[in-house]
Amino acid sequence: MTFPRTDPSEIAAGLVDLLDLREVAPSGEFSTPATVAAYQGDSSPHPGGHVFGGQVMGQAVTAVGRTVSAERRIHSMYSYFLAPGDPAHPIRFQVDALRDGGSFSVRRVLATQPGKEADEEERTILAMTASFQESQDGLEHQERAPEAPDPEGLPTTAEALAGIDHPVARYWATQRPIDIRHVTDPIYLRPDPASDTADAQMVWMRTLAPVEAEPLLHDAILAFASDYTPFEPILRRQGLSWMTPGLKMATINHAIWWHQHVSANEWLLYVQRSPSASGGRGLTHGQVFDRSGDLVATVTQEGMIRTRQKG
Prior knowledge:
Layout: H1 8-19, E1 22-24, E2 35-41, H2 53-65, E3 72-81, E4 91-100, E5 104-113, E6 123-134, H3 157-160, H4 167-174, E7 178-182, E8 201-207, H5 215-225, H6 232-238, E9 248-258, E10 268-278, E11 281-289, E12 295-306
Antiparallel strand pairs: 1-2, 2-4, 3-6, 3-9, 4-5, 5-6, 7-8, 8-10, 9-12, 10-11, 11-12
GO molecular function, one term: fatty acyl-CoA hydrolase activity
Family: Belongs to the C/M/P thioester hydrolase family.
Protein name: Acyl-CoA thioesterase II
């Protein structure tokens, strides 16, 4: 795998370009009476030969957000991942307007790509429903962030993987547009030695370098970044690492609730735990806090997770 960029500012700016979709004509195959717009986006290289799920989800947030007024910000979204994306083809996002009320708007978007074979129909790789709301006053309460060391004193991914000559490790260390710093020891290469008692993990995250982008794209970046580490609490509890032989994982669904809207340029603390794993699936719950300790988002993800059976 060759990497086109090495400068952090270029990598972060490339994320904004990736999420900033171009408008295209709606496709008749997927059009409904509620269709209001369609957009198209490209993909960036990613280990494994498929499209990173967070990318498709972030682009879908941009697509639905383009169809509502700027005064209405996304407050929730629910995504189903239906098929792996092919980075060799652009992704089309077709948006349906399900509701426009006095203060809420609801949108549905299908992310599609050409079929694998020449005669195969366009296939859907992601389906998302999202709701938007105008800013309103109301009741307020929130959980506060747990105690955590400052991110500046924690090792970067590049430092955690220093000396590891592996294409995936090089990608994680040099190409991810999100700076991720583990409060709990990272499990890139080896299991958590405290897996018997590890019921949660914490990471700090922000863009690799500051970006200039409209508020909608900062919401899309949060969706993008939220998909990097949700499997890790499951791996921790099971005494596994990303390098466990025979490990297979894929996201099934992913939901986010925005409680406040923040800049992706600022450090966010992502606190995650896994309440359940069963039937070849694992569930994780995450809370995202800003630097002042305010809860800004809640995330849940369910994924398929399998290991090679012994014997």
